[in-house]
Specification:
The chain is of the alpha+beta class. Helix content is 19%, strand content 37%.
């Protein structure tokens, strides 16, 4: 049995789960998430918890078992507590600011880079060089943060650019110059 898939998913108070056909809908205090579940996986709801059941012990079903359980657990966590991904900007003159729900970034280009928040995503700018992407859908939060980071990835020589909070950028040595004299 899968170590991940066999774990029950606790349903906190205020979370409603409904399965219509293959579409799973999870409703909670932070919103509603919907996802299609693989047709071979079955969900069983009982006394405040949810279980994922696989039909056989085939490797394909074992893989789907853990995946389905993780996706459903992330949906439940998203509608109760939400997800946040932090970003840091480093570089002279690089900064971020909010204009309504739009994130405006100055990244050394000749123009400001504007990022519109997708539905269900909010941006917070703590300082001009620190920001966060928040929302209930873990996949959408990560995708939006990756999109923002792709506007100016951290470069390896000076470390300038946008990086995830806590990300370590390996630095390269620059040109060594002429060593040992000219020939």
């Amino acid at each position: 049995m899968s170590r991940i898939g066999r774990l029950p998913i606790p349903l906190p108070a205020g979370v409603e789960v409904s399965l219509e056909g293959r579409a799973l809908r999870v409703r909670g205090p932070l919103g509603t998430l919907e996802r299609k579940i693989h047709p071979e996986m079955q969900l069983e709801q009982s006394s405040g918890e949810l279980r994922i059941i696989r039909p056989t012990d085939e490797p394909r079903h074992r893989a789907l078992h853990g995946l389905t359980r993780s996706l459903v657990a992330n949906m439940v966590a998203g509608v109760t507590t939400g997800f946040t991904k932090g970003l840091e900007i480093s570089g002279v003159g690089y900064r971020a600011q909010l204009q309504g729900t739009k994130l405006v970034l100055a990244l050394g280009y000749s123009h400001p880079v504007e990022v519109d928040a997708p539905e269900g995503i909010t941006f917070q700018v703590e300082t001009p060089t620190r920001m966060a992407v928040s929302g209930a859908d873990k996949e959408l939060v990560g995708q939006t943060a990756a999109y923002i980071r792709s506007r100016r990835k951290p470069e390896p020589y000076k470390g300038k650019g946008i990086r995830y909070a806590g990300e370590v950028v390996l630095r390269k040595a620059g040109k060594a110059g002429k060593v040992g004299g000219a020939k």
